[in-house]
Amino acid sequence: MEREHNLVPEDAWWKHYLYRIIYRSDTKLGKLFDIVLLSLILISTAIIMMESIPKLGKRYHYTFLVLEWIISIFFSVEYASRIAVVKNKRRYIFSFFGIIDFLALVPFYLSFFFPVTKYFLIFRMLRMLRVFRVFNLMDFMNDGFVIVKALKNSSRKIYIFLLFLVIFSVIVGSMMFMVEGGRPGFETIPQSIYWAVVTVTTVGYGDVSPITPMGKFFAVILMLAGYSIIAVPTGIVTAEMRNKRQNLEKVCDRCGNEDIDDDARYCKQCGKKLA
Questions:
Q1: Same structural domain, 157 and 192
Q2: What contacts 240, CB < 8 A, 6 or more positions away?
Q3: Which has more confidence, 27 or 210?
């Protein structure tokens, strides 16, 4: 998150003023700016979705085009202003929100040369994450970081699980290729692997299905295994989140009280100062 120490020297008063409007939401102008920004993000996203509908895209083409130009110019000025008013420009540019702000602009300018890239403007929806700061919902954002941290700590276990899943799908797909004997949907091993992945993940498109009794038997085994296989990564991440939550819980050393608020400095039972 952008911090106060990013401010430029005090002689540039206008940068301080602009910084507070753009980066903070504790003033009326700052709150208004953020609400306008979020509204334009929603409008831009709606335009992209409506443009993909041939009937609407053809009928309101110029209206959509003008609105896209206006919104994109606003975002361009806003992005340049964010860079201008911070002292550590590199830190903002390569920060999480800085990268998102950049990705929200690039598709518009790329569309001059590659028109289809304008649909990547849908990435602007990621800027809606600022709503947590605007409406003082940072506690929810912190909960999100807990999930990300749990995923990161569990990454090695998940990689091993995915490797096992790939090997398992390749073996099962190859066996189904031999069992089905090149029937429709199983003409090649890659096609059979596709069926195995769809089945083991319980997606079940239904575009390919075995015909032989042995093939159906393998399919049943794979379907039943899919339920337990899908539960593995969920259990890994859940266990990591539980461990992290237990590590963060406060416990009074004197009386062992665990009913302690997150912002508490003293134990509510014995009054001992908490570490």
A1: yes
A2: 150, 151, 153, 154
A3: 210
Of 223, 175, 217, nearest in space to 198 by CA: 223
pLDDT band at 194 (very low <50, low <70, confident <90, very high): very high
Answer yes or no: are the C-beta atoms of 108 and 119 closer than 8 Å. no
2, 34, 136, 143, 236 from 29: Cα distances, Å: 18, 9, 16, 28, 45
Last-in-domain residue among 106, 136, 166: 136
At residue 242, φ and ψ (nearest 5 deg) are -65, -40
Q: How far apart are CA 215 and CA 195, in angstroms?
A: 12
Of the candidates 23, 38, 31, the residue with the CA atom closest to the CA atom of residue 124: 38
| pLDDT confidence tier of residue 235, bands split at 50, 70 and 90 | confident
Alpha helix positions (H), the chain: 13-23, 28-51, 54-59, 61-85, 89-93, 96-103, 106-110, 131-134, 138-153, 155-180, 189-200, 213-248
129: CATH? 1.20.120.350
Angle between helical axes of 61-85 and 28-51 (0-180°, round to 10): 140
| Tens-digit pLDDT profile for residues 116-142 | 888 888 888 888 776 665 555 555 555
- Contact criterion met (CB below 8 Å) for 109 and 120: no
Which of these, 72, 141, 148, lies nearest to 111 by C-alpha position?
Answer: 72
Identify the band that residue 63 occupies on the pLDDT scale cut at 50, 70 and 90. Answer: very high
Number of domains observed in the structure of the chain? 2
Contacts of 72 (CB under 8 A, 6+ apart): 105, 108
Residue type, 149: K
Torsion of CA 174, 176, 180, 182, to 10 degrees: -30
